[in-house]
Amino acid sequence: IVSKLPRVGTTIFTVMSALASEKGAVNLGQGFPDFDCDPALVDAVTHAMKTGLNQYPPMAGVPLLREAIAQKIRTLHGHAYDALSEITVTAGATQGILTSILCAVHAGDEVIVIEPAYDCYVPAIELAGGIPVFVQMTVSSDGYSVPWDKVSAAVTSKTRLIMVNTPHNPTGSILKKADVNALADIVRGTDILILSDEVYEHMVYDGQAHESLCRHPELAPRTFINSSFGKTYHVTGWKIGFVAAPAALTAEFRKVHQFNVFTVNTPVQYGIAEYMKNPAPYVELPAFYQRKRDLFRDGLKNTRFKLLPSDGTYFQCVEYGAISDLSEAEFSKWLTTEIGVAAIPVSAFYNTPKESGIVRFCFAKKDETLRLALDRLASL
Ligand code: PMP
Ligand code: GLN
C-alpha cells in the first residue's frame, strides 16, 4: 500500500506514555486526568443505559444534548446557535476536527496552521488534499503569542481555512480580544473559513475570559467551533464533543459526519445532557485547575526550570536551558528515564523542525501525583 501519510508515525503522546509506564515515571506527558470523573455523571449515563436508551440516536446527536449545548453557549457567550441545525455531537474533538476539515478543504486549498499546533491538524489537512501553510508563534519570556502580521502575509487566493486553538495546546496561551479582532481584520472581505479548537474552553485562569470565536459577530458566521466533553468533565476516554457552526457549514459538516461515524454513543449523550443541567462543574473548573497550576508552579520555582505563563489549558511549559543542552525530544526521554517524570517535547508540535529548549508538563493530576513529580524534579 502507498501511504497517504508517509511522514506520520505513532503520536508523541502514545510514545511518551509507553516510556513513562516502562520506566515507572510519573506521567506528566500525555494530557489526561489521573483522577476520576464525578460519580453523578456516571450515574446519569448508567441511568440512560438502564432505561433502554441504547439504540442509534438521531444522526446529529440527541436533541436534549444539542439544546443543552446551545443554551450553554448562549449564556456564556451571547451567541444563539440553533440546536437543530447548528450543533452536531461528535466522537470527540479529534473527529470533529477531521470532519470539519474534510468538508471544508478541497484538493489544492491552502490551510494556515499556527505552530506549535496540536498533532491531529496537519494529517487531517493532508487527507483532505489540502496544503498546510505554517506560521510560527512568537516566543519570549512573556510566553507565546500569534504574530498576526505573519498570518496576514501567509494569506493567498488559495487560502480556504485558518486553524486557531484557544486556550492553546501545548503553550497554555489564550487568544485575547485584540487577537480575535486581528483575525477578523485578516478575513474580512474574503471567503476564508475558520476552525476554532476550543476544547479547553473552561480552563482559563486569573479571572480572564475565554474569547470564543462565536462572540465575534463577523467570525461566528464563518467558524467551526470544536469542543470536547472529555476535557470539561474529566472523561477523556469517552470520546465525545461537539461542533457548533452556522447552518450552511453544519449542513456540509453533517454530509461527511454521517458517513464518518454516522452518530455518537446514545447513553453517554443522554447522561451528559442530564448532567449539564447543573452548570457548577464547568463554572468551577477554572478554580479547580488554577489551584493545581499554582501548586505545580510554586514547586517548580525551586528548580532551574524557567516557567512560561500558563493562562489556560492544563499544561505548563518550561524552559530547561539552565539544566541541559539536549534536544527537546532527548531531554524529555532523559527526564522520564533518569529523573522519573515524563514530559512532552514542544518540538513535536512543529512541522518545521524547531528547537526552543521547552517541554510541556500536564498538571491535570492528583495533588499527590504533582507532589511526587515535584520531589523528583527538585534536584534540577
Ligand atoms: N484539540 C486539542 C488542542 C487537544 O488537546 C485535544 C485532546 N488532547 C483534542 C483536540 C482532541 O480531543 P478529543 O479527545 O475530544 O478527541
Ligand atoms: N490531547 C492530549 C495531549 O495533548 C493527548 C491526546 C492523545 O493522546 N491523542 O496530551
UniProtKB/TrEMBL annotation:
Its cofactor is pyridoxal 5'-phosphate. It comes from the Bacteria. GO terms for molecular function: transaminase activity. SUPFAM superfamilies: PLP-dependent transferases (SSF53383). Keywords: Aminotransferase, Pyridoxal phosphate, Transferase. Gene3D superfamilies: Aspartate Aminotransferase, domain 1, Type I PLP-dependent aspartate aminotransferase-like (Major domain). The keyword Transferase applies. The keyword Transferase applies. InterPro entries: Aminotransferase_I/II_large, Kynurenine-oxoglutarate_AT, PyrdxlP-dep_Trfase, PyrdxlP-dep_Trfase_major, PyrdxlP-dep_Trfase_small. Residues 25-377 form the Aminotransferase class I/classII large domain. PANTHER family: FI04487P (PTHR43807:SF20). This is Aminotransferase. It comes from Herbaspirillum hiltneri N3.
